UniProtKB/TrEMBL annotation:
Main location: secreted
Protein's name according to its UniProt entry: Germin-like protein
Compartments, as annotated in UniProt: Secreted, Extracellular space, Apoplast
UniProt-annotated binding residues for oxalate: 74, 79, 84
This protein's record includes keyword Thylakoid: no
Family recorded in the similarity comment: Belongs to the germin family.
Organism of provenance: Forsythia ovata
Pfam family, one: Cupin_1
Residues reported to bind Mn(2+): 77, 79, 84, 130
Assigned keywords, A-Z: Apoplast, Disulfide bond, Manganese, Metal-binding, Secreted
GO cellular component, one term: apoplast
InterPro entries to which the protein is assigned, alphabetical: Cupin_1, Germin, Germin_Mn-BS, RmlC-like_jellyroll, RmlC_Cupin_sf
Domain annotation Cupin type-1: ranges: 29-184
SUPFAM superfamilies: RmlC-like cupins
Amino acid sequence: MASVLLAVFVNGKICKNPNMVSANDFFFPGLNKPGNTSNAQGSKVTPVNVNQLPGLNTLGISLVRIDYAPYGLNPPHTHPRATEVLVVVEGTLFVGFVTSNPADPNVKNKLFTKTLYPGDVFVFPEGLIHFQFNVGKTDAFVFAGLSSQNPGVITIANAVFGSDPPINLDVLTKAFQVEANVIKYLQAPFM
């Protein structure tokens, strides 16, 4: 009688045959090395989630290292499947998140901000738009834990102004209550 191996699909990933698992499935080297911040935002996110570290599958955790050049920005983004807990290792960061669509139509979205220093910890609740900005004149870096092995990330400007094909101009001018030339200006860097 031949044995049949069935793949187990959990949380969007195929679990490895337990007989084939090795220590390397639970190991990720290199978070001691700074990321390359030579880009328009002046930041680099180095993720360690289930895509880089298969042993995280089903564990509900992941982490990132984020490096910032002086005045570097991790632009407004959201993690649809995770809360983020960030700890500053080096530098001074201005961070914040904004609430979304309060139940009371008379209440506006609220921005929560804080300036963080080495050793400070800040929490970004799941699904809320948040950012980090290096307000210092030196490099900065942080580690952040996320409450999902696959937290996902949606960078707001990239999604709204950099889609292919572009979102209809009438939709964006009405949504942002601005003239078409403003939307075209915001889309230009993504073309």
